[in-house]
């Protein structure tokens, strides 16, 4: 439990304002009035909240007016709180403590927190989605990071590896047939299903007897991981305040990068012996208890709950222009991005002689600083618009990704760093369009089709790269052949995509019902949060506020 105490000399006007219920970080109501006034949360991001305020040695009437002859008053306040953020909450409490202690109660946008009042439903969902994103990312990159070692045990060629990586994309067909149910039954059930299934099939892959069996198990597991990541972005977009969508998606991208990076932490196990790579596939056993915990405490998104109540239109209301444009963007980027990302380890291992430990160290050192770039890109995208930053990041990052396969020494590190940093910065900016431009009760269906078509692009890119390599070209030459596709997308983004930064989803999708304003209609917001499965806040003494 965090606590913030204030004691400050203020004017009469300042004291009067401070003794009013807050409407900046949360919407308060007066729980009890008197010499000391106690406030509880009506709507806000806290799991536990109570503020007690008083004027030291000065009589305060029940209506919070101070004696008129006082010129300077000693204002005292104690706030006990805990943000409704599982796992990461104690770190956020440190930032929140400063905001709670700020005597300026004017609603405003902080770099780490939106200017709007955020519900506990929102904070809880986003925190849990970050954990699911880590799980999905770990499973999604696992086969790409380990296939070179599995192929060595099975005696498979480079082209067989590329074909296997392409074939694992077929698993997304399964998730496409299922993911549309999230538009009918909600996001939570499918999130849990995909997370559990992806973990189980990854573990089964540890017992593969051939590259074919590994490809089948990881095709299913990776398909579910793809569906999981799609729903993570979708659910987060439905909860994130409009002024911070790109920034929060950048944070979720970093959480995904942390999950993907965890594969590199355990990749040295592949050096134990020829079969050591199988140990990496057993790691998802640790995810099962986390998934069960998330299942128990995660609420549904408020936007799905609101849209489901009024039975808002589904796939027929989708803007076909935006749909086909986003399909082209995802497919074109995937044709290049899949071989660029998944053949890196092969290049490092076979062409440059890196061991598993060397590859792990190289990737960790390259990708770790990318987090700051991704956060900065999301922050700028929310304030200056996302089209230009997405286009520039994608263009430069793609060029560096292709050039990487022709480099050694210091140039290898430089091109890898720039491609990882700018590629990572472009991803959340582009990914946001997948959910922002489509109505609530069609977002999962659209996401499934986009995943299928984008994965088709990935498989096509891997097959083309594999054929070019078998034909005598180097990996670098194969990537340069595919480079025009992401460069075309970089031109398309600022020219054809609409401005969505700072725009409410309901303004982009007029078929969706508007959410009630937390300041004007706190009771309606609280009722919607409860209907979505969110828990009401409690006082530090244990009573429901």
Describe this structure in words.
With 545 residues, the protein is α+β, with helices and mostly antiparallel strands. It has two domains: 2-100; 120-271 and 280-309 and 320-508, Growth Hormone, Chain: A. It contains 22 helices and five strands. A five-stranded antiparallel beta sheet has the order 1-5-4-3-2. β2 and β3 (37-43) form a beta hairpin. α12 (320-342) runs antiparallel to α20. The longest helix has 35 residues, at 120-154. It is elongated. The two termini are 16 Å apart.
Order of helices and strands: EHEEEEHHHHHHHHHHHHHHHHHHHHH
Question: Separation of termini?
Answer: 16 Å
Number of domains: 2
> Any idea what the CATH architecture of the largest domain is?
Up-down Bundle
Short description:
This protein has 22 helices and 5 strands. The protein is α+β, with helices and mostly antiparallel strands and 545 residues long.
Key words describing this protein structure:
single chain, 545 residues, alpha+beta, Growth Hormone, Chain: A, 2 domains, five-stranded antiparallel beta sheet, 22 helices, 61% helix
Q: Which secondary structure elements does this structure contain, and how are they paired or packed?
A:
Elements: E1 2-11, H1 12-18, E2 27-32, E3 37-43, E4 46-55, E5 72-83, H2 89-100, H3 120-154, H4 158-168, H5 172-179, H6 182-185, H7 187-205, H8 211-239, H9 245-266, H10 287-297, H11 302-310, H12 320-342, H13 344-351, H14 356-367, H15 370-384, H16 387-404, H17 409-436, H18 443-470, H19 475-482, H20 484-496, H21 505-508, H22 522-531
Antiparallel strand pairs: 1-5, 2-3, 3-4, 4-5
